[in-house]
Amino acid sequence: MVGKDLYRKLGKKIDGLIMRAPWNDTFYQILKELYTEEEAEVIIKMPYGLSTLKDIAKTIKIENTNLQKILDGLAAKGLVFDIRGISGTRYIISPLMVGIFEYTMMRTGENLNTKRWARLFHDYMQDGEFWAANLSHGEKISPLRALPHEGTVTEDEYVEVLDYEKATAIVEENKRFAIGICSCRHEKYHVGEKRCEVPLETCSSFGAAADYMIRGNFGREVSKSEMLESLERSREMRLVFSADNVKQGTSFICNCCSCCCNVMHGIKEFGYPNTIVTSNYIAKNDSDSCAECGDCAEVCPVNAIEAATDEAPVIDESICIGCGVCALECSTASMKLVKREQRVLHPENTFERVILQALERGNLQNLMFDNPQSLTHSFMRGFVGGFLRLPPVKKALISDKYRSRFLEFLSR
After folding, report:
1. Long-range CB contacts (within 8 A, 24+) of 397-401
2. Cα dist from 228 to 42, 208, 258, whole Å
3. Which of 93, 143, 191, 257 makes the best surface tag, with the fewest CB within 10 Å?
């Protein structure tokens, strides 16, 4: 395979992961910029799921030393995750988001074609195809969830803010921390669309994700106190906390501004409310104490609040993400977050999120039968994939009634 055919197959492989990546000429240019032909061939032949060097070598039939060198090069660019544990290192292909885009735009060092990459990613994200491919069929599971700013939830005896919903609690449960460049803000800077004064270095990672960031030079190691200070600065700047969409083992918190965040643009510009999964709370205004100043509408990062002079604000509950930025800005404390009437689905852990994301996007069969070189696996991917894509089947498996049993079965 050479030329465009090779990169077309690479694009198809990435499109088969947990986030869809529709093919067009811009995506082809992105792949050609980031992957050598040798790297592209390795990715195409790699298993979809977590694999050891031995597993990959067996699948690709390539000498271990050379394969190790290629995988190390891919991991250094954020195109493959090398996950290190007690039992050794396992590798998995990076999806487009969170993965290829973020780590490409977080890279530091000399001789990087950052401005070119920024323009390509900007053009790819802005035409709407990417968001439509991932969110136009009512999908509810996305990689990010909004965290409510602490102190913005109404003090009510029936409301309890759990630890996984608190930025400070997430920091306290970890021992290693890293801060790197915000990929969205970095992209907007290079294409001339960064309109805020927010610093580039705000992306926060914890635990194993921090290990990866530090090891790959995607971010610098910081202390717990530095991490807490960074989050407090973000709070003062009215940034949105967008965390890893899991309850256990949250690995990152993005500090998002309205002008730069691509994910929030998915809500504001393309109308897909689940680009960021809402917190368990929603904004509510007390009209009796409201000063009708309009400050809340001005700072709302997703334009969910409409206000006119001398009129109480109106909240669009269909797109409010429950971040609490409006409550931070409210001088009379009339704007607060209250508990949502309908429970929000946040996966328990990364395993659940990956499974549910893949199911919604029609790619779960690739994780179940992950060897691209096996004819048996190829047949099963087609057979099972067709079954899982049936709307009644997909709806049943993700429903409250069957979801837990389905996830337990796959876990076993």
Report:
1. 397/359, 398/140, 398/356, 398/359, 398/360
2. 40, 18, 22
3. 191
User: Please, where are the H alpha helices in 216-324?
Assistant: 224-236, 262-268, 295-299
Query: Which CA distances in Å does 376 have to 170, 255, 256, 365, 370?
Result: 43, 44, 44, 13, 11
Provide CATH 1.10.10 ranges for the chain. 3-135
- Name the percent of the chain in helix, strand, coil, to the closest 5: 45, 15, 40
pTM: 0.90
d(CA 232, CA 257): 15
The alpha carbon torsion through 157, 158, 162, 168 (nearest 10 deg) reads: -40
Which amino acid does the sequence have at 306?
A: E
10-residue stretch averages of pLDDT, the chain, 412 residues long: 82 94 95 95 91 88 87 94 85 92 91 94 91 89 93 80 90 94 95 92 92 92 95 94 93 92 90 90 89 88 85 89 93 91 87 88 82 76 73 77 79 76
Question: Which CATH architecture is the domain 3-135 placed in?
Answer: Orthogonal Bundle (1.10)
Do 47 and 17 form a contact (C-beta atoms < 8 A)? no
Q: How far apart are CA 382 and CA 376, in angstroms?
A: 10
